Amino acid sequence: MTLQVVPMQAVTPISVLGTTLVFAAFLSITAHLAARNVLGDVDPRRALYIGPLPAVIGVVGGAFAVTEALLVPLALLVDGVMFAWSYDQPRRAVAVMTAIHAVITTLLGIIVLGIVVLVASMPG
């Protein structure tokens, strides 16, 4: 598999906004799964507050080529702050939800990327 470079003409404000919104939705879904894992039955609307800020950090950090050594801890910190604000839980529960959120997001991201690569490489 070869890596394809996207020409700069393909990057528009609409494409950046769309990428950020899809990433925020994905992070919100995985945040809800993490919260359900720790807290049980929770309101799914609370997870909608969690996804957007880490998504913006990822997209803006990627656009400005900020190193992952800075982006990942920053995104995890913001993720934890948003879990604490949204679910109003003790620090231990917030730390567990944040860790589970990172694991779920990583695993589902790998699975989705694998499916996209498989579909993109289909003959015909």
Automatic annotation (TrEMBL):
Keyword Membrane: yes
Transmembrane spans: 12-35, 99-122
Keywords: Membrane, Transmembrane, Transmembrane helix
Pfam family, one: DUF7473
Listed name of the protein: Uncharacterized protein
Origin organism lineage: Archaea, Methanobacteriati, Methanobacteriota, Stenosarchaea group, Halobacteria
